[in-house]
Amino acid sequence: MIRVAFQTLRARWVSFLGTVVALVLGVAQVAAMGLLVTTAFDLPDRPVERFADAPAVVRPDSSGWDPAHHDLGVRSPEAARGLSTGLRDRVAATGRTVVDRTFYAQLRGGSEDQVGHPWPVAAFGGYRLTDGSAPAGDRQVVVPSGQARTGDEVTVLTASGVREYTVSGTVAPVGYEDAVFFSEAEAARLSPRIDSLVALGPAAAVEDAVGDRADVLTGQDRHKADASEAEDRETLDNTITLVPVMASVAGTTAVFVVASTFAFAVVQRRREVALLRAVGATPRQVRKMVRNEALLVGTAAAAVGTVLGLYGAQLLADMLISMDVSPEWFTVTPSLHWTVLAPLAAAFLVGLLVSVGGAAAAARRAGSVQPIEALREAAVDDTGVTRGRALLGAAALLGGVGWTAWIATGSPVTVLSPTVYVVSLMVPVLAAAVLAPLVVGPLTRLLMWPWRRAAGPTAMLVRESALTARRRTAATAAPVLLTVGLAFSLLAATDSLGAARDSGLQNRVVADYALAPDGTPGISAEVVDRVAEVPGVKIAAPLLTTVYWKDEDRYDENDGLVVDTEALKRTMDLKVVEGSLDDLDENSMAVADLWHMDLGSTQTVLMADGSTARLKVAAVYEALRGEDVAYLPPRFAGTAAYARDGLARRAYITLDPGTDRDAATAAIRKAVAGSGATFMTRDELVASESAYARHLNEVRQRSTAVIIMLFCFIAILNTLLMATADRRRDLAVLRTAGATPKQVLRFFLAESLLVSAIGVVLALAATAVNLAGLWGALLQLFGTTPIVVPYAVVAGVALVSTLLAVVGTVLPVGAALRARAVQLIGARE
To answer: Burial, 551: exposed, middle or buried (Cβ in 10 Å; 0-12, 13-18, 19+)?
Structure first.
């Protein structure tokens, strides 16, 4: 039957055009995304930056700390604590040793990611003086040329406060960082932690002096001490997290489209298959023929899709780079390396499996065609609902509604995980696609009801055409359903979840005003003290730190906020479920319910500065994932400079009763002027917080929606082209019956609009199920919250889908009408 299958493909290539295009695009997507993932796991060595001219770098030993198992930006306990002065002295005994420190230091008006270092370490990173001299005193700095000139007075923002310095010299900028250099003594005052040591003594002596107390980095390993190492890991983690989700969603969509177009191709060839049965072909041979067709189509399409994915992977990488998901240097280069060959081979095999698997149902249907059907003149679908189809439809309905109900009631936190929830949103949409053939009849009658008394035969013909070809109608409506349903569900879920988080934050913050960073990563303690001096003003500025719990041979970490208890109660409305914030003292803490710590229990915690504390759980509050922190007493404020940068991310302000509001707010604005902080209301704070928190989630979900829509738009156009091009008989019948070309075109145009309307209605039904589940989940997590629907975007997607359906219909019909006109002219001549 392989020869018959090959001949069939040659003779009926139009019938398989939709399948080929869908499969090529699906395989290309899988190949491109697989290349991105494998490339991210096996990156080329990045050049050493800050220590390119250093023979050896000693840094804390964090061998027991796998960054992939911890939150981004969190230091290991060893890295937070830094190197000890004793180890510094041991290394110094082997030869010249330079202490390196990295801390927050930003010129007023400078870049937000600007850092400070002691001057002696500059030489190892390629810095060279272009003017002036090294800093000779505590009030002198060296800055990149172009930001100030030698002799200028500059304002430098640090975690300890805002201070004036004199520029003693300038250096040529480097590409990997923006740094301000201080004298060794001033750098030690600003940052007591020793981040690393540059050892210039004999390598063997340095190794012996360090022993197992720290790591000694040489060669390419010195890049591990660069800040870009952690930054690259963060962006690549985003890539590795996002791409598999996009691949699974796109792959599932491709499987469905391929299966649908294969089934449609069999429906179109029903009489042809019946003729084979009439001349003696057995059902088994017919099934084998269809499977062989799928194998031939799959092999060719998978090969083309693999090549397309190989050269399209960089386009996908460029899209992720433009959305700040992947690093700018991230590239995919064709080669014979396993990171290229493995995903390409996997994509090719996926294409074959999708092709053969997608044709399985079509093969069974083809095998059930009876020889007598070859004698039928009317090429109509079998409009009866088979038991298998009814069972499959019922299972799809129960699965879609049941899954959504489970999320709404049993696992509402699922909506907070974009990678899981994106896939969950597909279930009701795919269920609606499975149900489509069962509901085409009722939907057709409902949508055509307003035109039941329309003059002329067009409305009646469109209605009866859809009713007598339900499988064709369902197959051509499926891409519209997938496009509108998935885009609508993804975008509405993203916007609704963002609005719910905004509402939750607004309810949690009870302070009327706040301070937020203004072009800086945080707010210094000096700025907080200035505001606190304003009469009638109370300010709470939680300092972000890290607390560690030892779990057997590894550490678990959690964020901690150091804040005064009275200030916490005055500015935040925590939902305390056990204990009371009134019980907080210098030896206790408040923890999130997600941590499952018993009220009154005593926990031994390791702080970022290396100290150990035993703290009693005085209160347990309700929190969402990502918002769970330990509220710690003020005595741990010093640990913030070790854990992060010693800056407060936000500060909350309340006014005492009777305070002149206008005078107080004016004094606050004056106090923070030029300090890298901005004064705002609570509503403005919520807006800025939500914009920051939602960025990555929106990028993930919207980029997935873009991939889906691009794929489905092509599927709509290609499926309608395939369906309409194969209906020359219908066109001929209409022309023979006396229909003018304009009437024929109007009929097909109206039919394509009906098909699009059916797809949109089913998409709206599936989206309604998704949004009902989302509303139930958000109700449990945040209380009453609105469902936000991006009407304009969804309407645009539906409109584009409809236009593509119309184009996919008009093009082949117009071509057929022109061809028939030419034939008639030739006959007359």
So the answer is: exposed
